[in-house]
TrEMBL record:
This is Ribosome assembly RNA-binding protein YhbY. Keywords: RNA-binding. SUPFAM superfamilies: YhbY-like. Residues 1-96 form the CRM domain. The lineage of its organism: Bacteria, Bacillati, Bacillota, Bacilli, Bacillales. It comes from the Bacteria. The keyword ATP-binding does not apply. It comes from Cytobacillus dafuensis (Bacillus dafuensis). GO terms for molecular function: RNA binding. Coiled coil: none annotated. Pfam families: CRS1_YhbY.
Length: 96
């Protein structure tokens, strides 16, 4: 689990990022989880947007993504989820 200080640090890093994935009408599926997992391995920190036509609640979507990818939820702000997962081979972010 991330500490409050680490979450603040990651939020400041994520502020300038653009969302890479969008969750829409189909919700979260296995294929999306695999793609998000691969992207997290490459980037460590990313934003995901939840579209208006998504049937599921944003907290449910965040929970599914966190469980599926084994990542940490940094924050949910509006319809944007910020996820962090330490990369095994491509470590870029040094947590405080």
């Amino acid at each position: 689990m991330l500490t409050g200080k680490q979450k603040r640090f990651l939020r400041s890093k994520a502020h300038h990022l653009n969302p890479i994935f969008q969750v829409g009408k189909g919700g979260v599926n296995d294929n999306m989880i695999k793609q998000v997992f691969d992207a997290l391995e490459a980037r460590e920190l990313m934003k995901i947007t939840i579209l208006q036509n998504c049937d599921e609640d944003k907290n449910t979507v965040a929970e599914q993504l966190v469980e599926g990818t084994n990542a940490d939820l940094v924050q949910i702000i509006g319809n944007t989820i910020v996820l962090y997962k330490e990369s095994r081979e491509n470590k870029q972010i040094q947590l405080p």
